[in-house]
Amino acid sequence: MVRLFAGLSVLFSLFLGWIIFSADTGQSNLFFELIRHVPYGDKWGHLLLFGTLTLLVTLGTNFKRVRLGGFSPYLGAIAVAVIVLIEECSQAYFPQRTFDLFDLLADAIGILMFSWLSYLIEIKRQKIHTE
Question: Which residue intervals define the domain VanZ-like in the entry (predicted)?
Answer without folding.
Answer: 32-121
